[in-house]
Design a protein that fits this description.
By secondary structure, the protein is α+β, with helices and mostly antiparallel strands. It has a domain of 121 residues: Glucose Permease (Domain IIA) (Distorted Sandwich), CATH 2.70.70.10. The protein has 2 helices and 11 strands; from the N terminus they run H-E-E-E-E-E-E-E-E-E-E-E-H.
Amino acid sequence: MRAKRCVPVCTRLVMVLVTTTAVLLAPPPPLFAAGAPLADVTVPAVGRTWPVGSHPRVLRGWEPPATAYGPGHRGIDLAATPGTPVRAVAAGRVSFAGRVAGKGVVSVELTGTDEPPLRTTYEPVTAAVEEGEEVEPGEVIGTVDTTGSHCAVTCVHWGLRRDDTYLNPLSLLPPWLLHRGPSRLLPVY
């Protein structure tokens, strides 16, 4: 009689353990919308640094629009306090540094990314560079503005385009730069 009562209880216990294990072992949520690739094969991983900080919190990921003028998020939003230095992700030439619709914007055409070249855009940013200036990876191109952010908290919107096509800016960063955890050395036998 006792064995018959144990079967439903044991079955439930096994199901709880399986479900809990699956949740704990599941990968972390993506930095991009469902169905949107993390890396685009047409984008070389030429980035050498994050635009702000060493690994900023992503407030909103890339959500490519279904059509050219459809809804979506054509970049990623990175948490950053006003006055934070904004750095060029990769080497290039400043193609624009000024204000658009009241927001400070800096755009950089990336060197060695074929034709038409890839272009990164950072906003809202007070520019520290001028149009035509060459920049190196990690070079400060401006600081985060106190106004003009479309986030609930101050952020930098980081975008990437090739001609009229919006791409995932995270595609510029090599996998080792995207990794969140600490590096671990394994023993050599």
